[in-house]
Design brief:
Blueprint lengths: L7 H40 L15 H13 L6 H17 L10 H19 L4
Helix pairs in contact: 1-2, 2-4, 3-4
Length: 131
C-alpha cells in the first residue's frame, strides 16, 4: 500500500506522531547542548577576564581571580577543551610559585587571596584529572 492510498486521517496521524518525535528529540539535543557544551564555552569566556600583571603572570593575589576560578570550576564539565585548560592551569601554577607568600606575610590580605586562589586551582586540577 502506498502513502497516497492511505486515508487522509491516517496520514495526518502519522505525520503528527513523526512531528512529536522529532520535536522531542530536538529539545533533548538542545538541553544537552546547553548543559555541557555551552557551559564549557561560557567558563572559558569568564576565565579570559583573569587579570595579568606586566610580566604576563596571572594575578593570584587579588580576590577576582579566586572568584573567577570558583565560577569556572562550578560551570565547566571537565571534559571539553582540555588543551586550553591545561595551558591555563600550568600558567596559574607558575604564578602561584612565583608569588608564594612566606613568613609574616602569610596574614596579609593578598596572602589570603593567594590561598583562596590556590584552593580553587586545586579544585580545577581535580575536576580535569590533572593532579
Amino acid at each position: 500500500m502506498s502513502w497516497e492510498s492511505l486515508p487522509i486521517e491516517l496520514r495526518v496521524y502519522i505525520l503528527s506522531e513523526r512531528y512529536k518525535i522529532r520535536n522531542n528529540l530536538s529539545k533533548k539535543i538542545q538541553n544537552v547542548w546547553q548543559q555541557y557544551i555551552i557551559a564549557d564555552i561560557e567558563a572559558i569566556n569568564i576565565l579570559l577576564d583573569v587579570e595579568i600583571d606586566e610580566d604576563q603572570q596571572i594575578m593570584v593575589s587579588i580576590p577576582e581571580t579566586s572568584i573567577i576560578l570558583k565560577i569556572c570550576a562550578w560551570i565547566c564539565s571537565g571534559k571539553q577543551h582540555l588543551w586550553f585548560w591545561k595551558e591555563i592551569l600550568d600558567k596559574i601554577q607558575e604564578s602561584l610559585v612565583i608569588n608564594k607568600y612566606e613568613g609574616t606575610q602569610w596574614l596579609t590580605p593578598n596572602a589570603v587571596n593567594y590561598r583562596k586562589t590556590k584552593i580553587e586551582y586545586k579544585k580545577l586540577l581535580k575536576k580535569f584529572n590533572m593532579e
